[in-house]
């Protein structure tokens, strides 16, 4: 059962991710991205990270994809074809493709780890542990993240606001 | 059928990262490039959660929280920049955004 669900969600994730990259229509690509995120959330549930699956759907599907769709409709963009590869870009692309393929091959050929899921305690399943970690070990990063969100919010307001040239400022 | 082992989770994470990477490389539209970036971020979170679960330590899971926060901030700022760019230049195709070229 677990194996079947794993295969289903893995296939959903990868196929929809390919759909994001190859789709001509920007709205369809955003919808494929949404489905791909649902697949990743399913994989998170299979890994006993229920809270993270929920937060992923909330933040990505609820906020990020909705924002993408808003911008796509606002700008009325076409997805556009593939970029023309030429010269140094093609060389860099070939090298990075080779490196990525090598990485994937290394994982495929690596000796299988024998750890079964039943042997390890699912630490990510309980909410208490997240709260404990966030308020003890990771207290400073939490503060920094809050500050980062504040900066991002202010930055977005400044960037997207139309600032008229005022005489008295000059 | 593939079994849900650590290697296969990491494999899916790597494949997802590669797909996102090629999205960044092959697309011409800034929005689609941005979507490829998001795909790469999600792929990295999947790897972190898998390692965390199979090793029985909570740190990877907690780290995913921070990645999600940074991703949310990044999307907000990035899309605001794209909108500002569109207002200024009237296009979001990377081929036509070459003001810094010469």
CATH class descriptor name of chain B: Mainly Alpha
Q: Could you name the ranges of chain B where pLDDT drops below 50 across 5 or more consecutive residues?
A: none
How far is the first residue's CA from the last residue's CA of chain A? 69 Å
* Secondary structural class of chain A: mainly alpha
The SSE order of chain A reads HHHHHH
- Quickly count the helices of chain B: 3
Number of strands of chain B: 0
- Which structural class do you get from the secondary structure elements of chain B? mainly alpha
- Poorly predicted runs of 5 or more residues of chain A: none
Rg over C-alpha atoms of chain A, rounded to the nearest angstrom:
22 Å
Task: Give the name of the CATH architecture of chain B.
Answer: Orthogonal Bundle
Q: Quick one: overall form of chain A?
A: extended
β-strand percent of chain B reads under 5%
Q: What's the alpha carbon Rg of chain B, rounded to whole Å?
A: 17 Å
User: Would you report the number of β strands of chain A?
Assistant: 0
What's the number of helices of chain A?
A: 6
* Oligomer designation: heterodimer
List the helices and strands and how they pair.
The complex is a heterodimer of chains A (170) and B (102).
Chain A: H1 2-22, H2 26-46, H3 50-75, H4 88-109, H5 127-135, H6 139-160
Helix pairs in contact in A: 1-2, 2-3
Chain B: H1 6-26, H2 30-55, H3 59-89
Helix pairs in contact in B: 1-2, 2-3
Offer a concise description of the structure.
The complex is a heterodimer of chains A (170) and B (102). With 170 residues, chain A is mainly α.
């Amino acid at each position: 059962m677990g194996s079947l669900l794993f295969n289903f969600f893995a296939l959903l994730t990868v196929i929809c991710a390919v759909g994001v990259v190859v789709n001509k229509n920007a709205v369809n690509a955003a919808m494929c991205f949404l489905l791909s995120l649902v697949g990743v959330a399913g994989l998170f549930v299979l890994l006993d990270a229920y809270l993270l699956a929920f937060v992923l759907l909330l933040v990505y599907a609820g906020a990020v994809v909705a924002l993408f769709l808003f911008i796509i409709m606002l700008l009325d963009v076409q997805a556009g074809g593939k970029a023309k590869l030429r010269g140094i870009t093609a060389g860099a692309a070939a090298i990075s493709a080779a490196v990525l393929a090598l990485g994937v091959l290394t994982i495929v050929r690596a000796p299988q780890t024998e750890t079964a899921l039943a042997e390890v305690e699912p630490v990510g399943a309980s909410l208490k542990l997240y709260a404990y970690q966030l308020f003890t070990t990771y207290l400073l990063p939490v503060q920094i993240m809050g500050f980062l969100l504040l900066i991002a919010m202010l930055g977005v307001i400044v960037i997207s606001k139309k600032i008229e040239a005022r005489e008295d400022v000059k | 059928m593939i079994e849900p082992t650590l290697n296969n989770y990491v494999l899916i994470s790597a494949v997802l990262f590669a797909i996102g990477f090629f999205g960044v490389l092959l697309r011409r539209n800034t929005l689609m490039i941005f979507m490829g970036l998001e795909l790469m971020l999600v792929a990295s979170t999947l790897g972190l959660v898998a390692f965390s679960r199979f090793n029985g330590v909570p740190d990877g899971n907690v780290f995913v929280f921070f990645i999600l926060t940074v991703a949310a901030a990044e999307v907000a700022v990035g899309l605001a920049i794209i909108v500002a760019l569109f207002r200024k230049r009237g296009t979001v195709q990377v081929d036509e955004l070459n003001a810094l070229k010469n």
